[in-house]
Amino acid sequence: MSAKYEWCRVAENAAFAARDGAGALVFRDRMWLLGGWNPGDKVHFPLICNSEVWSSPDGTSWTLENPHAPWEGRHTAGYAVHDGRMWIVGGDCNQGHYQNDVWSSADGIHWNLAHDRVPWAPRALHYTLAFDGRIWVMGGQTLPDFGGGDEVFYNDVWSSADGISWTRVTEHAPWVPRGMIGGAVVHDNRMWILGGGTYDTPATPIRNFYNDVWSSADGVNWEQHLTHAPWAPRQYHEVAAFDDCMWVLEGYAAESGNRRDVWYSADGVEWTELPDTPWAPRHAASVFAYDGSLWMVAGNNMEPDVWRLSPKKCRAAPTAVSSSPTKRALEEAARRG
């Protein structure tokens, strides 16, 4: 099956500045890039994260739709398309506080505040998706080093039809508390959790990395499909639904740091690795399933590159791709250690 796929580089230096953790949504026949993190670039990210909104119809041409959206700059937040709008659900705590708000937009330019303090606050690094007419928030944790407060690791499940009224569907799901999963997978009319992990805190000074596979049709009843998938345990990876399969791409692992491997599965049990990934190792990239292809955009390689995985053969750009520092090195430089 893998022979029918091929990566090609669409852009080596896209119009937007390098970033990781930017929201990635497909909306109105365009790919949308929301915010992002780059503490080494004080021009485009004076407060570590920004609130830029970019869009593209083809991965080559990118338009800055809004240089300063009204929501505070953030990355690794919750992102979803729901009820004819793009949604940003919560955020991070790089500004010294938790971003406990919910915003939505019908055009990427004008944004409406739906809620300024959600009942599941405070948390960051949560997993967010749209399913069955609702927005879902699962897991995540507090980060006392950055946002203050007590240490909490979550495995609860919340949902909302409008971003305003939230219902706690499950207080303690059977999967171990975790977050740090980018993208979203809805497959076979079920929500899927693929791996993930937890960030270190003063009281728990180690990170956890998982590679188990879970799914649910209602957020209450969960089925564990695998205790250990063949792909390495990871966090800050991207997941996607594409070509009737679920995909796990890149991420950060304890032993190897940034990764470049790509895996896919039709059922969550049998996984196949797509070999010979041409792009640089990274995590917290922005991944889109769009226009019959799977797209890999930027991330912790800290390069504004754009790659397309298509069932059709394509010709890649000739120049080489180099590796960049891991997020841990950058985090330490920006007090993220």
Side-by-side strand order of the widest sheet = 14-19-20-21-22
N-to-C SSE series?
EEEEEEEEEEEHEEEEEEEEEEEEEEH
Low-pLDDT ranges = 315-337
Task: Tell me the overall shape.
Answer: globular
CATH arch. level architecture? 6 Propeller
CATH class wording: Mainly Beta
Query: What is the beta-strand fraction?
Result: 35-45%
Report the radius of gyration as a whole number of Å: 18 Å
Structural description of this entry:
- By secondary structure, the protein is mainly beta.
- It has a single domain (2-333), classed as Kelch-type beta propeller (Neuraminidase, 6 Propeller).
- 3% of the residues lie in helices and 41% in strands.
- It is built from two helices and 25 strands.
- The protein has helices at 144-147, 327-333; strands spanning 6-11, 23-27, 30-37, 49-56, 63-66, 78-82, 85-89, 102-105, 112-115, 127-131, 134-138, 157-160, 167-170, 181-183, 186-187, 190-198, 208-216, 222-226, 237-242, 245-253, 257-265, 272-274, 286-290, 293-297, 306-310.
- A five-stranded mixed β-sheet has the order 14-19-20-21-22, with no helix packed on it. It has a four-stranded antiparallel β-sheet with strand order 1-25-24-23, with no helix packed on it.
- Strand 19 and strand 20 form a beta hairpin.
